[in-house]
Write a structure and sequence with these properties.
The protein is an alpha+beta fold. It has a four-stranded antiparallel sheet.
Length: about 70
């Protein structure tokens, strides 16, 4: 789904993301309307925003945190 179609979503990015090279994935908690977490490329904000389940997103965050 294109990101603008799921507005008003509050998009956030990691506090570890810098501004260098613009390589960042943003996410929005859209559980109230779509029962999912939406993802988008910060360099292409009107582009596609795939959904993942909250369980999958939590597992992803735990995996990334374990690598820190």
């Amino acid at each position: 789904m294109p990101a603008p179609e799921i507005e008003p979503a509050h998009w956030r990015k990691s506090s570890h993301s810098g501004d260098a090279n613009g390589q960042c994935v943003e996410f929005a908690d859209v559980r109230p309307t779509h029962a999912a977490i939406a993802l988008r490329d910060s360099k292409n904000t009107p582009g596609p925003a795939p959904f993942v389940s909250p369980t999958a997103f939590t597992a992803f965050l735990a995996d990334v945190a374990g690598r820190g």
